Prior knowledge:
Number of helices: 3
Mean pLDDT: 86
Helix content: 40-55%
Strand content: under 5%
Order of helices and strands: HHH
Distance between the termini: 20 Å
Shape: globular
Radius of gyration: 13 Å
Amino acid sequence: MSTIDITPTRRQSQAWRYLTDDKTNIVLFGGSAGGGKSWLGCLWITTLCLKYTGIRCLIGRSVLTQLKLTTLNTL
């Protein structure tokens, strides 16, 4: 098994704690361009896919062009 070292920002670390705890149902993570939202979302989806066999996930944005330029590039 491979090990990947990552260095999230303070805000990404805080959001990650909420995404992975057993109590939180909704996490809102916003901000300006370059804030690491796509990176964190891709990390979360990838982690879930590795953890749960057969899981189905969706990553979406309101504008397809933005999805292709940002999120899919990150993933």
